[in-house]
Specification:
By secondary structure, this protein is α/β, with parallel strands linked by helices. The chain contains eight helices and twelve strands.
């Protein structure tokens, strides 16, 4: 069993907007490691005004990114895959430190997320549209176009895997993505966005806003975000769906999944 490495210095989790780090202007939230019960960092939550600047940045970036060919987008995803595999152990240690998982489980979650990224690489072969003549001089046409700016709200128990369900697909299809990680496990987001940045993803295409409930509500209410995805409890998923739909968003709300573990009397807790 690999012993988890806990960050020795306090980590300040910031927003990643337009290719640079900046702090929110809301409340300060401490990050506690379930492994030690000690604080390993903090974040400053994002407010409505913070999100407004992020959306403006994402909107401009989405317009440019959509004009990039899908093959070029896939090339960025492929380079991201190589970076994540290179840094897999280091990222897994951070996942464990902030979520309380064993190193093996954290690594398995990240690798499962990388599998989704690998699927995203196949999207360049997706049927992108067509045109047919249905009557003399009359044509029907269909095509696939990115929505623009989309958002993801992810849970504490899979800090790397669940975001990777969303981000590679959205980016490969030409959208800009705003990610709101759980305020309990924000450290992993820093490493993931740095991997995409190193791979050559243009500034503003992937942004991160830190925060809690207020930040989530701002995302769901914002008219500049076309779609939102959520993973978490059923009760919150219902609220997310209702609130996001009220602002005319496409909403993917996944709630209620549980992993049950039975610990037998003869188990070795270590």
């Amino acid at each position: 069993m690999v012993r988890v490495t806990i960050p020795q210095e306090q980590v300040k989790c910031q927003n990643w907007i337009g290719g640079s780090w900046s702090s929110g202007s809301g409340e300060v939230i401490e990050i506690e490691s379930p492994l030690t019960g000690q604080s390993i960092g903090s974040l400053t939550a994002s407010t409505v005004s913070d999100l407004g600047g992020c959306i403006a940045n994402s909107t401009d970036a989405a317009r440019l990114w959509a004009a990039v060919s899908v093959k070029e987008r896939c090339a960025v995803m492929f380079r991201t895959r190589e970076i994540l595999l290179r840094d897999c152990d280091a990222i897994s240690h951070v996942v464990s430190a902030e979520s309380g998982k064993t190193f093996g489980e954290s690594k398995a979650g990240l690798l499962k997320g990388i599998e989704v990224l690998e699927y995203a690489l196949s999207l360049q072969n997706l049927d992108s549209g067509g045109r047919m003549e249905v009557s003399n001089g009359v044509y029907c046409e269909y095509r696939r176009e990115p929505l623009g700016v989309v958002a993801g709200i992810t849970p504490f128990n899979f800090p790397a895997m669940v975001p990777m369900w969303m981000i590679p697909i959205a980016l490969t299809l030409g959208n800009a993505f705003i990610w709101k990680p759980s305020e309990k496990t924000p450290l992993t987001s820093k490493l993931l966005v740095e991997a995409f940045h190193e791979a050559g993803l243009p500034a503003g295409v992937l942004n991160v806003v830190q925060g809690g409930r207020e930040t989530v509500e701002a995302i769901l209410d914002a008219p500049g975000i076309s779609a939102a995805a959520f993973v978490g409890s059923t009760a919150v998923a219902q609220q997310v769906y209702v609130r996001g739909s009220a602002s005319h968003k496409r909403v993917l709300a996944l709630g209620g999944a549980k992993n049950h573990i039975v610990l037998m009397p003869d188990a070795d807790p270590e």
